[in-house]
């Protein structure tokens, strides 16, 4: 029995099957994403979605979908599915689905009378090429397959509509055609492993509707261009491979290429393997062979904070130290460029004040896996330079004050991970002394001091230890209140009493300014008021402004984004804090918490974790369908669980 397998009853019930999305990436920025019944429900969905750097920094949908029609005795059975305006679905090909399996490669079995057709698809690694293999497993009479491609040629943030500008020109290539709807776009090559007939029959399919965009308060309709259709006969037992790409391929290689790509795929046969697969989907390799981490799919870019928070879990926790080093090499170069005042590179939001603190935390995790000596050799100078950059008051929005704490100005611009804005202003204007910034700062000072000591630089180690002691005393004086938890931020006479999860870092980090009793008090309040099966809430239900349901138009969602929604990556730090305080006595509790995440493997985007969840039951997944920080922290938690089971 496959881990991710769905029977006919679920597949033919659109209420159950449409919310289940399927993501495949090529690790170079391109992806393929739709639902398990091949009905696109977002403007971000498409079979071939690729970056077009010549146009902009967005991904672009070239091939939206591919309808397959089975023809026998002149009767046509269309296996496609599209949603049109007025809640109309056509041509309702999902009713022919017998089962769907997503173990190694997504596989759909269709049954049309005596015809059994198997469809498997994958994305070629590091190439902008989608491959789909169709196998006729059974048929009692002559069978013809007809393939009708739906083209968009537009940014994932826009829509296409019927127009006279779109080019209808196509050129024949090896067992297929190439076409391009608009100037500036690459050609789309559609080829088959078998000779076929292409019938030029251009038309626009009007009023295609995307319900997820309706939910989010956006425009939701577009028209898709169909240039015609491909047709070929297929025999029982025969396989045909379709390729959609931005470059031509020799079609005699398609079958072997598909087999080779399948052999490279790891099975998604359990919770851990699903997460490893999801972790690899965030990998991003540029044409210059630089390595990055994408913050999430389908709309996020590479972001600095997300990179450093997600990186240890996505790499070190699954024994991929080499990829950690490759990403850190790119990230270090870009941060050094930022410190030198050079223009932004591939990584966005690198100017945020907590980024250097998270970079040091990520390196600290590397030290645990690779050893302090290796860490010192590879990253000792970088850590030293980051600390000196902050202490030298060179960061544009992170200053070290006389009390030893760091301060940021965040009243007018969002500076923390709670970064939603409305009407140009932060929804949660956290400013001044911010609790997680200063927990990270104390941790960074202590870690840097330990590296200096290992490097036999006793003078530097002593100086950093003194600074850490000052920061520790000031942290307690500034943030600890009489109710046993921590202020979220303190800005002059303003003390934010809201119960938020940002205080958990002061408990979870390796070096904490809190004593054991203070840690327990903070952890207890997080448990009572913030903990859900999907991570920590961004705000306690007892605090003013609690808004736990992330739905509706953009402004409504902006006000809910950090006002009660639950975030799995925060849950990772919560569970680390539990293990550090209570050791093995909390193992069974944390294992039960993991069940809440494993449940998500068969919801939303299969085999991965959504960006955030409603803060109230039933804790629906919302936002991006796959989020790097969440996947990374769950993997890191699983590794911590294993260590505590066997080492304590």
Walk me through this protein's architecture:
It is elongated, with a radius of gyration of 26 Å. A 9-stranded antiparallel sheet has the order 1-9-10-11-12-19-16-15-14. Strands 2, 3, 4, 5, 6, 13, 17 and 18 form an 8-stranded antiparallel sheet that branches. Strands 27-28-29 form a 3-stranded antiparallel sheet. The relative contact order is 0.09. It contains 17 helices and 35 strands. By secondary structure, the chain is of the alpha+beta class.
Which structural class fits the helix and strand makeup?
alpha+beta
Shape: elongated
Strand order of the largest sheet: 1-9-10-11-12-19-16-15-14
Number of strands: 35
Oligomer: single chain
Number of helices: 17
Radius of gyration (Å): 26 Å
Fraction of residues in helix: 25-40%
End-to-end distance, in Å?
Answer: 35 Å
Tell me, rounded to a whole number, the average pLDDT: 95
Low-confidence stretches: none
Main sheet: strands, sense, barrel: 9 strands, antiparallel
**β-sheet strand percentage:** 25-35%
Provide key terms for this protein:
single chain, 648 residues, alpha+beta, eight-stranded antiparallel sheet, elongated
């Amino acid at each position: 029995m496959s881990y991710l397998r769905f029977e006919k009853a679920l597949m033919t019930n659109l209420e159950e099957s449409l919310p289940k999305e399927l993501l495949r990436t090529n690790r170079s920025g391109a992806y393929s994403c739709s639902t398990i019944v091949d009905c696109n429900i977002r403007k971000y969905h498409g079979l071939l979605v690729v970056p077009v750097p010549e146009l902009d920094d967005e991904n672009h949908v070239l091939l939206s979908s591919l309808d397959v029609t089975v023809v026998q005795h002149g009767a046509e059975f269309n296996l496609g599915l599209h949603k049109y305006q007025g809640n109309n679905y056509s041509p309702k090909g999902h009713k022919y689905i017998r089962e769907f399996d997503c173990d190694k490669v997504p596989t759909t079995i269709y049954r049309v009378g005596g015809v059994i057709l198997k469809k498997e698809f994958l994305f070629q690694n590091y190439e902008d090429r989608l491959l789909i293999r169709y196998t006729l497993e059974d048929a009692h009479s002559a069978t013809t397959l007809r393939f009708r491609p739906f083209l968009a040629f537009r940014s994932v943030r826009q829509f296409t509509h019927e127009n006279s500008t779109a080019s209808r020109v196509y050129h024949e290539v090896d067992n297929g055609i190439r076409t391009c709807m608009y100037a500036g776009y690459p050609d789309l090559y559609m080829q088959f492993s078998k000779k076929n007939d292409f019938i030029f029959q251009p038309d626009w399919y009007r009023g295609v509707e995307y319900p997820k965009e309706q939910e989010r308060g956006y425009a939701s309709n577009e028209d898709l261009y169909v240039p015609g259709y491909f047709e070929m006969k297929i025999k029982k037992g025969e396989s045909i491979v379709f390729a959609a790409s931005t470059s031509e391929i020799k079609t005699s290689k398609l079958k072997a290429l598909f087999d080779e790509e399948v052999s490279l795929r790891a099975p998604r046969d359990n919770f851990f393997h699903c997460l490893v697969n999801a972790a690899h989907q965030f990998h991003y390799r540029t044409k210059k062979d630089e390595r990055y981490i994408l913050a999430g799919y389908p709309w996020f870019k590479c972001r600095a904070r997300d990179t450093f928070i997600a990186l240890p879990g996505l790499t070190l926790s699954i024994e991929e130290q080499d990829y950690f080093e490759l990403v850190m090499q790119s990230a270090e170069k870009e941060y050094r460029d930022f410190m030198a005042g050079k223009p932004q590179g591939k990584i966005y939001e690198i100017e945020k004040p907590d980024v250097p603190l998270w970079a040091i935390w990520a390196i600290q995790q590397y030290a645990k896996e690779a050893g302090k000596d290796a860490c010192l050799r590879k990253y000792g100078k970088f850590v030293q330079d980051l600390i000196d950059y902050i202490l030298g008051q060179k960061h544009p929005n992170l200053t070290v004050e006389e009390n030893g704490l760091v301060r940021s100005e965040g009243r007018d611009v969002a500076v923390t991970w709670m970064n939603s804005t409305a009407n140009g202003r932060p929804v949660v204007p956290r400013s001044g002394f911010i609790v997680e910034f200063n927990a990270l700062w104390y941790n960074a000072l202590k870690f840097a001091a330990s590296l200096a000591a290992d490097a036999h630089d006793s003078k530097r180690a002593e100086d950093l230890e003194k600074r850490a002691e000052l920061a520790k005393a000031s942290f307690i004086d500034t943030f600890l209140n009489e109710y046993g938890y921590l202020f979220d931020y303190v800005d002059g006479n303003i003390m934010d009493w809201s119960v938020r999860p940002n205080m958990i870092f002061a408990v979870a980090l390796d070096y904490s300014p809190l004593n054991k009793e203070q840690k327990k008090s903070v952890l207890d309040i997080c448990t009572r008021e913030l903990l859900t099966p999907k991570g920590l809430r961004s705000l306690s239900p007892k605090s003013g402004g609690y808004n736990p349901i992330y739905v509706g138009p953009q402004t409504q969602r902006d006000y809910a984004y950090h006002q009660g929604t639950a975030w799995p990556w925060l849950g990772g730090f919560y569970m680390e804090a539990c293990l550090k305080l209570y050791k093995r006595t909390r193992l069974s509790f944390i294992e039960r918490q993991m069940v809440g995440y494993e449940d998500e493997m068969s919801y939303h985007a299969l085999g991965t974790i959504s960006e955030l969840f409603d803060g109230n039951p039933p804790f629906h997944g919302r936002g991006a369908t796959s989020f790097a920080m969440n996947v990374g922290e769950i993997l890191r938690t699983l590794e911590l669980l294993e260590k505590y089971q066997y080492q304590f």
